[in-house]
Amino acid sequence: MKISTKGRYGLTIIIALGKEYGEGPMPLRKIAAEHDLSEAYLEQLVAPLRNAGLVKSVRGAYGGYMLARHPREISAGDVIRVLEGPIQPVEGIEDEAQPQRELWIRIRDAVKNVLDTTTIEDLANQQESTTENYMFYI
């Protein structure tokens, strides 16, 4: 299964809103600037998230977007399904021979489990990676 930029950037929006949960609405331009993304593209992605009840919008000078529910009540799977559709590693599983079908089903179920058990709160609370860059001299 390959997650497109729609799913990746949609998660970026939701995680950013999750980090600011309870602090009022956040403008998309701030998210776009912080992550070096197109604000216009984020506007396209936030509409289905709003329609699905994951985010809500606030109009006005201090407006923007905020999560419609607590970050612990929204899973990564919720976001991916809204933007990417059903989670399945391959299409036409029913046409596969039994051994392959079982493999695809196990992969699908494993991916669903990870996405459905990972909350936006989990993702928002993760610290940025601080891996050290090593230089090797020969």
TrEMBL record:
<keyword id="KW-0238">DNA-binding</keyword>
<protein>
    <submittedName>
        <fullName>Cysteine metabolism transcriptional regulator CymR</fullName>
    </submittedName>
</protein>
<dbReference type="InterPro" id="IPR030489">
    <property type="entry name" value="TR_Rrf2-type_CS"/>
</dbReference>
<dbReference type="InterPro" id="IPR000944">
    <property type="entry name" value="Tscrpt_reg_Rrf2"/>
</dbReference>
<dbReference type="Pfam" id="PF02082">
    <property type="entry name" value="Rrf2"/>
</dbReference>
<dbReference type="InterPro" id="IPR036390">
    <property type="entry name" value="WH_DNA-bd_sf"/>
</dbReference>
<dbReference type="InterPro" id="IPR036388">
    <property type="entry name" value="WH-like_DNA-bd_sf"/>
</dbReference>
